[in-house]
Design brief:
The protein is α/β, with parallel strands linked by helices and 269 residues long. It has a single domain, classed as Rossmann fold (3-Layer(aba) Sandwich), CATH 3.40.50.2000. Strands 1, 2, 3, 4, 5, 6, 7, 8, 9 and 10 form a ten-stranded mixed beta sheet that branches.
Length: 269
């Protein structure tokens, strides 16, 4: 079997940042898959809580210096890299001075939800895919986790559908229950999300302008949906029922062989 290439995209990875269970999931599963012989890359945002000196982050100049569109603005992207301790795994960090140079993640010191959290997610998803293009590395599987990476399956099915790097990539979306009650600003949301070949009629799942809306669009455009906590199924039943043609698979976080078999079956190895 050829060496399977898997890209993991998420909002966090332990030990650089650990706010939700996603961080532990992205710390353990990619390392286990590397031990199985797969070729792995990890992409996360460079939130301001991440100490660059302590974690030995450094800028990758050859990958930095490009922009991605978010609404009417072209936002500059800086790429930094560090190694996951004890795993010989590189983690790529997507950075931008306006979006990520803050001391908090999604809320400020007074626990107020940042007004531009939707833009930060949009920027991250667009920046992540452009970074992989610059790496010149074609993933067989792009495994996204939780709401902040939820637009990537949409972009893979539209903007990057015929791109030489992504044309054969399968999109997986892991569903977590990290919901929040806050709403995004709906006015202008479609325009910010849009990318090449993305039309208004593809974005209806975002009409709720909230956490569930992002989760729904991630599920809608993915080739496979993974649930690692059986209790999550009940909490997302409404979304699942609205997308009856989607297949949801339960695999325990600790079932390494289960993930290995799922990945290899998905790409037809």
């Amino acid at each position: 079997m050829s060496k399977l290439r898997i890209l993991y995209v998420a909002s966090e990875v332990d030990p650089f940042l650990a706010v939700t269970p996603v961080a532990d999931f992205i710390r353990k599963l990619p390392s286990a898959m590397q031990d199985k012989g797969f070729d792995i890359r990890i992409l996360v945002p460079r939130f301001g809580l991440i100490n660059e000196r302590k974690n030995r982050l450094h800028e990758v100049v050859r990958l930095s210096g490009f922009t991605v569109p978010v609404g009417d603005s072209d936002m500059p992207v800086t790429i930094k890299v560090a190694s996951l301790p004890l795993a010989r795994l590189q983690v790529y960090f997507i950075d931008n001075e306006d979006y990520f140079q803050r001391k908090y993640v999604f809320t400020d010191k007074e626990d107020k939800f940042y007004d531009d959290n939707d833009e930060r997610a949009i920027f991250f998803c667009k920046g992540a895919l452009e970074t992989v293009k610059r790496l010149g590395w074609s993933p067989d599987i792009v495994h996204c986790s939780d709401w902040m990476s939820a637009l990537i399956p949409l972009y893979l099915k539209t903007t990057y559908k015929n791109d030489v790097i992504f044309k054969d990539s399968k999109a997986i979306f892991s569903v977590f229950d990290n919901s929040f009650p806050n709403k995004f600003q709906f006015e202008g949301l479609y325009e910010k999300v849009k990318n090449t070949n993305v039309e208004d009629n593809m974005l209806g799942s975002l009409d709720s302008a909230d956490y569930n809306g992002f989760m729904k669009i991630g599920i809608e455009y993915s080739d496979a949906i993974i649930i690692t906590d059986e209790e999550v199924t009940e909490k997302f039943n409404t979304i699942f029922n609205e997308l009856p043609n989607k297949t949801f698979k339960y695999i325990s976080e600790t079932d390494i062989d289960g993930f290995y078999n799922f990945y290899t079956e998905l790409v037809g190895e």
